[in-house]
Design goal:
Blueprint: E1 10-11, H1 22-28, H2 30-33, H3 44-64, E2 71-74, H4 77-91, E3 98-102, H5 107-118, E4 122-126, H6 136-142, E5 147-151, H7 165-175, E6 178-182, E7 201-205, E8 216-220, H8 235-238, H9 246-284, E9 288-290, E10 301-306, H10 311-320, E11 323-324, H11 340-344, H12 349-352, E12 355-359, H13 366-386
Parallel strand pairs: 1-11, 3-4, 3-5, 5-6, 6-7
Antiparallel strand pairs: 2-8, 7-8, 9-10, 10-12
Helix pairs in contact: 1-9, 3-9, 4-5, 6-7, 9-13, 10-13
The structure holds pyridoxal-5'-phosphate.
Length: about 400
């Protein structure tokens, strides 16, 4: 059989997507092949599917400190972001049409804000410091009488910076403004307790935590005003229409249950491997910058900018050496525009072009980090020798 996957390769692109855990796949299979009934049906296989969906909702809720009825499953993280932002902005239009986000959000958030601007909403895009941190005081100053929504990501998918979500949430709560966080990179990697965190809505996606692609959730704190986004059937307590992706939801429940239990151990192991990569590259390659915050960062993300290098060429040569990594978010790679995140932290265009994102999972090993460190200095030197840049 032809090889179609990453088998035999070092897979270092886990911020883009992750391998489905074997136990997750096993939990999902019966809901394709045996209990394939529609979860809204009243007969046996439908009732079994409904039971599995509700059990998964319970697991997801427990993992993030929410009540099960505050969790609505969606088709992906992108849908969760779109729904939170569009739904809350529209629900709040009686109060005003001003909405606030940051310059470093994922396009699932940024482009939703752009779409709302076309509908007549006014958006503020907050800047970040050179580490990618949002200042809660900037959020406070941006909020006006007609502001209805603030959306700030939990952790950045490109540079790994973890934002002060608790402080920003407090600012929003004091001002009576709905607060959404895109936690797609954080859920399953960082411990999150929504019973303590002042967040009204939170978005997550299963495929970032060893679950399947095509399933996400939106946490909606009880009492949060939000319009419907998907119209049709009465699924998800009439909040999100569309036949439930039962195997996907089951997989999400299992994946998050496993991930939440593993956070401390897994985080420590990944942090040690990342530290080795950073120290190894810094010690062997000149003219490198570590992007993102040195400490307040995801335990599984390293983002480096190499001067006088074109990121895409670096990725190709790494791929030829058996290492799969990224030079930005998967959605922006393939375009020649430098990452909006790297520009927002102040990197000049030519340096932003030379970035490398290495992102780990619980399956990553120190041996894989050593394999990267063995080939990377030579590849960088080769590319720099060919570079027209001074
Ligand atoms: N938000 C962030 C921060 C992400 O990293 C991603 C995926 O890359 C998304 C949203 C979109 O999630 P999904 O791929 O499930 O649509």
């Amino acid at each position: 059989m032809a090889t179609v996957g990453s088998e035999g390769k070092v897979y270092f692109d886990n911020n883009a997507t992750t391998k489905v855990d074997g136990a997750v796949l096993e939990a999902m299979i019966p809901y394709f092949s045996e209990a394939y009934g529609n979860a809204s049906a009243v007969y046996g296989s439908g009732v079994a599917a409904r039971g599995a969906v509700e059990a998964a909702r319970g697991k997801v809720a427990a993992a993030v400190g929410a009540n099960p009825d505050e969790i609505a499953f969606t088709g992906c993280g992108t849908e969760s972001d779109n729904w939170a932002i569009m739904g809350a902005a529209r629900a709040g239009r009686g109060k005003g049409r001003h909405i606030v986000t940051t310059a470093i959000e994922h396009h699932a958030v940024l482009d939703t804000f752009k779409a709302l601007e076309k509908e007549g909403y006014e958006a503020t895009y907050l800047p970040v410091d050179r580490y990618g941190l949002v200042d809660p005081d900037d959020v406070r100053k941006a909020i006006r009488g007609d502001t209805t929504l603030v959306s700030v990501m939990y952790a950045n998918n490109e540079i790994g910076t973890v934002e002060p979500i608790g402080e920003i949430g407090e600012v929003c709560a004091r001002k009576g403004v709905t607060f959404h966080t895109d936690a797609v990179q954080a859920v399953g990697t960082l411990a999150i307790d929504l019973s303590k965190l002042p967040v009204d809505m939170l978005s997550a996606s299963a495929h970032k935590l060893h679950g399947p692609k095509g399933v996400g959730f939106l946490y909606i704190r009880k009492g949060t005003k939000i319009d419907k986004f998907m119209h049709g059937g009465g699924q998800e307590r009439r909040r999100r229409a569309g036949t439930e992706n039962v195997p996907g939801i089951v997989g999400f429940g299992k994946a998050l249950e496993l991930a939440a239990a593993e956070i401390p151990r897994k985080g420590e192991a990944m942090r040690a491997i990342c530290a080795r990569i950073i120290e190894g590259v810094m010690g062997s390659v000149p003219d490198v910058i570590l992007n993102g915050h040195p400490e307040r960062r995801l335990p599984n993300n390293v983002n480096l900018a190499f001067r006088r290098i074109e990121g895409e060429s670096l990725l190709l040569l790494l791929d030829m050496a058996g290492i799969e990594a990224s030079s930005g978010s998967a959605c922006t790679s393939g375009s020649l525009d430098p990452s909006h995140v790297l520009l927002a932290v102040g990197l000049p265009h030519e340096v932003a072009h030379g970035s490398l994102r290495v992102s780990l999972s619980k399956y990553s090993t120190m041996g894989e980090a050593e394999a990267l460190l063995k080939v990377l200095p030579g590849i960088v030197a080769r590319l720099r020798a060919m570079s027209p840049l001074p």
